[in-house]
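Q: I have 183 residues here and want to know how they pack in 3D. Can you give me a structure?
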Amino acid sequence: MAGGSTRYAALLRGVNVGSTRIAMADLRRLVADLGHEDVKTYLQSGNAVFTSSETDTGKLAQGIERAIADELGPTVPVLVRSGAELAAVAAASPYADQQDDPTRVLVAFLSAAPAKARLAALAVPAGENIEYAAAGREIHLHFPDGGYGRTKFTNAYLEKKLGVVATTRNWKSVLALRDLTGG
């Protein structure tokens, strides 16, 4: 991109599910006020896409987290991925071409790669038919028998078992964010 700028997606954890409500217009304004450009939001679930010359995704995430806390009140974990990272995640899915229903293929984005011992101990809850594959800071998920709504293998379950912050997006959202970041 021109001038050394990169497109990023900020993925907010737990926004507009449960009690944490953030208007997407407020999110766009906050991200723009941090000096990022061409800010867009996707859906109401806390996804912002923007261009920035900053290359440290941790700094980008911390800046957005701080702005949300300072101006809107809630403490919301934010994970940032570049367009190139999102393109790599989409290309790496072992399940995307096994499934026509995008609600049955998801990606859990993690704040850091989990410890090997924790990853090795990760298990699907008894009685559930779920496939998963870990790749760095992502867990690819496949729910062949149904969507994400009825499982115990949730975002909170992954966070507890892996000891990292996670936020999960369905396949349609992953592809849309990849496309919006030009990845």
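Q: Anything worth noting?
A: The chain has six helices and eight strands. The chain has a mean pLDDT of 92.
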